[in-house]
Amino acid sequence: MALDLQSNWNVEMSQPFKIPPQQQKKPNGIESLPSPSPSPELLKPPTRELQLPSEIVSQILSFIPLRPRSQYTFWSCALVCRTWYGCAIPLLYVHPHLDGSNFSTFIRTICPSKNAHIRQTPLSVFVKRLDMSELVHNSSRSLTARILGRLKGNIEGFVAPQASFGINSFAALSKCTRLRVLDLSLISASISNRLLFQTLKSMTELETLFFPRSSSLDEAKTNQEPYTWPPKLKALHLAGGINDHFLLEHLINVPKTLSKFSIQHCSQVHASPLLDALQIIGPQIQHLTIRPPMSQLAPGSLDDLFRYCNSLTALRISADYITESLFCHSQTFYSTLRILDIEASPMLDVAEAVGPDMIHSLLCKDVLQSLRVVRVSSRLGWTRPREARIVESMEDILEDNEEANPLGFEATGVWEIPEP
User: Is 341 within 8 Å of 317 (Cβ atoms)?
Assistant: First the structure.
C-alpha cells in the first residue's frame, strides 16, 4: 500500500468503477445474496516457504528433555532445514550420551585428526558435558587425553571412564579450566592425591568433585602444606585413599562454600578424626552422607554427629554406625532436618538396629518439625506388624506438619529402600 493519500487516489481512480448487478428477488421477497468467489490471489501457491524465526525454533526445542532417547529426536530435527539444523545441533552435542555403539562416530566428528592444528571441527565447541561412564574398553588413555584437549575451552562437566583414564590424562584435564563438575569415582588406576590436587589448582570454577575410589595414600610429611581446594567448591565426595591424616590436615581447609559432603569406601578412617573434622566444617554442611564400607567405624561411633552438624537438612547414614542415641541431643540440633535416609549393610545386627520408636517419639514432641521424608533399608524390618503401626502414625504426622508448614515437598512419608 502506498504511504500518502495522493498515491492511493491515483491507484484507485486508475481502475474502472464497477457497478454490482441488480440483485434478483425470490418469490417470497427475500433477496438472494451473491455467492462469494475466492480471490485469484488466494488460489495461487505461495512463492516461497514460510520459515519460523530461529528464536522460536530454539524455544520449541528447549522443551525436549536432555536424555538418551532424545538424542535421536534432535538428530531428526537437524534434518528438517537449515534453520532447524542450526538450532538442533547445539542441543545434540551439548550432552552427548555415549556408549560402545556411537563412541567411534563421536570421535571421528570431534577429533578427526591427532594433530589439533591440522583438522578442527566447529562442532566441538557445543560439547558442555562429557560422560564416559558407560565406556569400558572402547577408548584408550591417549584418546581420552586427546578428547579433553579438544574440549578444554568449553567443557563444564566430565565423568571419567573406568579403564581409559590414567596419569597421562591429568595434563589435559588440568587445562579444562571451566569445569564445574568432575567425577573420577570410576577410575580403576591408582591415582596419587598429590597429583590430583596439582590438577585441581587450575579449576577455579569447580563446584562438584568426586574422588576416585582407587586413589592412593600419600606419605605424610612433617612440613607438608595443606592442599589447596577449588575456591567455589560446593559438593565434595570422598573415597579411596583417605586416612585420618588427610581429614585433619587437608579436609578442614575446604572453602566456606562447601555445603554437601559425603564419604564412603574409606577403610582407614576412624570415628574420632572424622568427628574432629566435622566439628570444624560441620556448621556449614547441609547435606551429609556416610555410607559403608567404612570398616573402622563401630556401632554407635557416630551418635554425636548432630552436635557438630547442627545445620543439616538431609542426612544419609548407615545404621551400622549409629544407635537410637543419635536422637538424644538438644532439640535445636534437629530443627532443620528435612530428609533422613538410613541404610544398612549385610553385616548389620538387625536385633540392635535403629527402630521407628525414637523418631516417632520426637515427631510427637514436635522436635522434628521440619522432617518430611524418611527412607529406611528393608533390612531394618520396619514392615513388621508392630513397626508398621508406628510407621503409619509417623506418616500421618509428617503429612500434617507439611500442611501446617509447607516446605515444598510434593510427597511426604516413610519409604522402604529395597536391598539387592
Answer: yes
